[in-house]
Structure formats: structure tokens, C-alpha cells
């Protein structure tokens, strides 16, 4: 019973650690997403610059995997080359190891301060950046708390009779230790969490450093597998970066593992304590990987192009909805509550496709990739088809006997489908057309104008997430936040308009050349955002929070 309690405590500590790491990443992404993406866009020239950007981004996001997903998205739109993305990934892995270094020190004295400051900012301030900064501080506090819980859970293991047997087995079988650590890292999707866990176990004397060394190698292999798994459904260009990074990491990890069978590595090189040796080994591996592999990103790009060749023209499809069975189940037409639930699922899937269309828009403005523009535009046909199917399905449901609430819900879902269809048209018939015009005329936005557009686009993307959450959960606070965002978007659009006019008055050539495109793109993004906000209106109207299209005052 005591042993089961220890395992339960350890499992709880591990889950808290995973959740806290994700919480920090979410806070940073929501607070500084536009800045992070813009920094990655600016790292497309020069391998050293790309690696440095990857390091900084991984430190901020506390995840090399998150950087891999960002870099893969840029590669898919032609903004970043595979070799540039590989340089970013090599730097990101070093950044992730630096995060582990920072969290390995005893920072328990910071926990009360982080909890107080984080909770105050998150609960009491509505400004998005401040609120998400609070989330980040809370996440760091929870990481430190979870590490203390891991230490408390593993401390009794030092007196276990089974521990010496397990350690002796892993010492004599480093391949098993390597494979187990790789599998664990793949399962938890976080190399930061894995290394911190092994560090805590080493600090308690549960995990000797010589046993931890092959496990650290396994962690690095597992981290590479995670990125490959997360991008497996994306375009071929997006998948090449994680695959190339995995080849680098696997070759290095397996080579060192084999070398350890022939040569004994002096563990004293990595520090005095076992815990310090664990985190230093992890950092040393990734620094060595960066130095040795950075000059070979070009050859690796050629290799992964052989492994993942370009698909024949027109073969690669972004037709996500056609690959799934429709959620509109006609066998439940005579059961309105069930049928409306099916319609809700289909509207949500429709919104997901619209989001997929919106996400690469700014990259297409920059790259002008005609093939990619055509692929994104084809998705509008799927949005239109879903819109028609949903309207006809709900109309058929309405022919039966429905309660007043069910009839109202049917109207709401129909209106949402209409608005999403309009949102898809804004992308396909306005934003993509503007991107093509910019490419055809070989124009460039001014630095200030480009920054304004990317900030607006990132804000609309964030609001798209809120809108989908509102659609699924019906959460009142999220609905209120969405309506508040409409007013903020209106102010951003007005400010962008005024700054653009000032640039025209000052005679900025790029602003003069792209004036029409800039103003139309800003207008389109604002209109798109307004359509998203319509998701919140039924919830706020029903609760009494929306009076004549305005939020009611709160007490």
C-alpha cells in the first residue's frame, strides 16, 4: 500500500510538471505570439542567425517541439528553407537545454512570489499580454512545485530493496535505459519534463549519473520523434525539417551510445553532483550537436528531399473535410436534440477548415507561392459545401416537432454556418487575391506596415481559437472576451489606418505602392473578426449581457 501511494504521488507530480510546462508555453504564445512568429520570419538568412533565433524562441516557449511546429509551418508556405529550418531546430534544442539548466537550480524561495504575482495578473487584469504573463508566472511556480513533489515521492525509493537490482540491470543494459527514456519522452511530449524528472531522481540518489547518461541520449531521440509525429499530417515541406532533425539526433545519440560501450566517460567532467551531471550532459549533447551539424544542414536538406520527395502536381490535398465522414447523421433527423448536436460538430469542423485557410495568409503575402495559394483557395469549396449541407440538414430537422429552445439553436447554427461561409470568402476572394496582386507587382510593405498587418492577423487567429471554444463550451466569460476583442480590433484597425496615412504623408515609397493592398487587407481582417464575434451573441443575449448589440455593464 505504501509503494502504491509513492507511485500515485510520483504520477501526480509528473502530470503537474507536464501541465505546468504547457501552461508556460501557452502563456508565452498568447502574449507574444506575433513577436515570436515575426522573429522566426526574420531568421531566414544565415544559419547562425537562424540557430540563434531558434535558441531564443525555445527559451521563451520552454519547448523545442513548439519551435519545430512553427518552423515547419513556415517551410510549408515557402517562407523558410529546409536547411534554415534545421538550423532553427539545432538552436531550439540548445534553448530547451538552457531552460532545463535554469530550472535545475533551487528556486523554491520564488514559489510564493510567483504564485502571488501570477494569480494577481491573471485574475485581476484583463489586458491580454498582462493576463498571459500571469499565466506564465503561475506555470513556472507549478514547475518548481512539481519538482519538489518529485523529490518527495522518490526519496523513499532510496531505501527500496528493488532499487539496487533495477539500477544494476540498467547499468548493465544501457540500450534498455536508452529505449525506455526515448519512449517516455515520446509519451509525455516534453524533453524538458523528462530531463527535469531524471534530474530530480538523481538528486535523491535514485538514479546514478552513469545510468542517466544513456537515458539522456534516449530523451533527445524521443524529442525528435515527438516533432515528427506532430507534423506527420502536414505538407511534405513541413515534414522535412523534423525528419532531418531526427536523423541528426538519432545518428548522434546512437553513435555516443555505441562509443560508451568501448570508452568509459569520466562523469566528473559534468559536475560534482549526480543531478548537476544529468542537466550538464543534456546541455553538452545539444551544444555538440549544434556545432557539429550546423555546417551540414545543406546536405541534410538534400537527403530528406530524397527520403520525402515532392508529390506530383495536384496530388497533395488540403481537402481535410472530404477525408472525414460527415457529422450530419440523417438517421437521427427525427430526434432534434441529437441532430442539432451533429450539426454543431459539423459547424465546428467547418470553422477548423476556415482556420486552416486563415493561418498561412501572411506567409502567402510574403512568399506569393501560387501553388500554395491555389491549395488554400480550394478549401473554400469545402467550406461552401459544408455551409449548404448544414443549412439543408437543419431545415430538414425543422420540419419535425421541436421545442422553442431547439428551434432557436437551429437558427443560431444556421447563422454561424452562413458567417463562416462568408469568412471563407473573405480569405479566398479578398486576402488571397491581394496576396497574388502583391506578388504579381513585386511590391513590398514597409516594415511598419508589415508589422501592423501581422499583428492584426495574429490577433484574429487568437480570436478564432476563442470563438471555437465558445462554440463548443458556451462559456459566458469567453463570449464576453470575444465581444471585447471586437472593440479592440476596431481600435487597432483605426490606429493602423492613421499610421498608414502618416506614412503616405511622409512619402514612404513602399507605403505609397502598397497603399490599396494594405488598407483592403486591414479591412478584410476586421470584417473577418466581426464574423467570429457572432458566435458569442446568442450566449450573451440569453444571459442578458448583451443589450442592443452592446455589453451590459457589470456590477
From TrEMBL:
Its main location: membrane. The keyword Transmembrane helix applies. The chain crosses the membrane at residues 78-101, 107-125, 137-155, 175-199, 211-230, 250-271, 283-300. Gene3D superfamilies: Phosphate transport system protein phou homolog 2, domain 2. Keywords: Cell membrane, Membrane, Transmembrane, Transmembrane helix. Residues 347-428 form the PhoU domain. The keyword Membrane applies. Pfam families: Na_Pi_cotrans, PhoU. It is found in: Cell membrane. It is a multi-pass membrane protein. It comes from the Bacteria. PANTHER family: SODIUM-DEPENDENT PHOSPHATE TRANSPORT PROTEIN 2B, SOLUTE CARRIER FAMILY 34 SODIUM PHOSPHATE , MEMBER 2-RELATED. This is Phosphate:Na+ symporter. It comes from Aminobacter niigataensis.
